[in-house]
Amino acid sequence: MSKCILVIGVRRRCYQAALELGHEVILWSDGELKKARKKNLSGWIEEPYSESLPELSESVVEQLKTFKIDRIVANTEETVILGALVRKHLNLKHIAVDVTDRFHNKWIMKNYAVKNDIPITKYKLIEETTKPEELAEHLGLPLVIKPVSSSGARDVKIAKTIEDIKSFSAPGLLAEAFVTGSEVSVETFVKDGKPIFHNITGYLHQWRKSVVPAQLESSLKAKILETNDKVVETFGVDRGVTHAEFYLTKDGPVFGEIAIRPPGGYYMELIEKVYNFDSWKLYINLSCDDLVEEFTPTEKGCAAVYMMHPGAGKIRSINGVKEIKEKIKGIFDFSLRREIGDIILPHESTSNEVGHILFWSPTREQLDEDLAFIESTFIIEME
To answer: What is the pLDDT of residues 177-195, one digit of tens each?
Structure first.
């Protein structure tokens, strides 16, 4: 049944999926939308997200009155709380704002995990009176310092010394013990509070390389999913998609954090390629409480993302593009957003990549070979 959906956050595949399913779509962007994005939309809101918190602005409230909105889809980290506020304002089905904060504020999230006996790393909120030596004694060195409400590893610092702690610390930031071991994420599609599909993504390199599915022993995979599903249940997820991160330690998987939104890093596209279903349309259907037919996705091969960033500076040359496109037959998305002479800013998160390659391989061995060829062949030289 067609609905009027307010999509908060400009992710093209998300709002296009809603349109393709026959819904009317209102798109809320934190800046001016290009004309091409407005095509086929029933309306739009162009208002900064940050100025709408902790309450909706008068401008947004007035604009909401012009639409008869049935559902809200908030698909980026900075719009999760905002989506809850809009649902509350419009008296739509929603998780309470304070509950939604469990998925957005890492301090609240970790406290809630401890309360529910979910294994996590040691942590401490940095306050005005917190001393660097106190953090080092409690968490050890190195340790991680990060904002309580950000995503994509943005502004995450690794402090290796007391001097680093002094430099990186500020009241309100979160300090965590550094975990030795690999990291994975679990993408969970949820209907009526129950997972209907899982994927585990392997992190090969922070911000740069990930593979679907992760290559894990069956017993470890089962343990990760057991912990993940406990998080989904106890945190109160009723529908949609979650993206949870886990550290694989010598003592077993340890919960890192969870987001109640689709993952970034092109993971939705990798999932589609490997399991052969439209991940964005399923997300829209789940978010709208629409009928979802039972399905049994079949895993076929594996897919990876290679995100490009050569470091800060000016691009002198770009090499290897032709060779890679000719050799790697499984490429299904090759994007290079910069050219010779462009100035590249420091690599602070996944969002400021200069391009990416998404590719599929029939086996993990072949994928590893393809990835090695890409890394050795694609070279961006900087001045």
So the answer is: 998 889 999 999 999 999 9
Number of folded domains in the chain?
4
pTM over 0.85: yes
d(CA 279, CA 192): 18
Asked if residue 171 belongs to a domain, the reply is yes
User: What range defines the domain where residue 313 resides?
Assistant: 302-382
**What does the angle CA 94 – CA 154 – CA 33 come to, to the nearest 5 degrees?**
60
Length of the chain: 383
Q: CA-to-CA distance for 306 and 359, rounded, in angstroms?
A: 8
Same structural domain for residues 186 and 279?
Answer: yes
The sign of the dihedral angle between the CA atoms of 270, 271, 276, 277 is negative
Find the helix or strand (DSSP H, E) in which 258 lies.
Answer: strand 252-259
pLDDT tens by residue, 293-314: 777 899 999 999 999 999 899 9
**Do β-strands 157-159 and 331-336 pair in parallel, antiparallel, or remain unpaired?**
unpaired
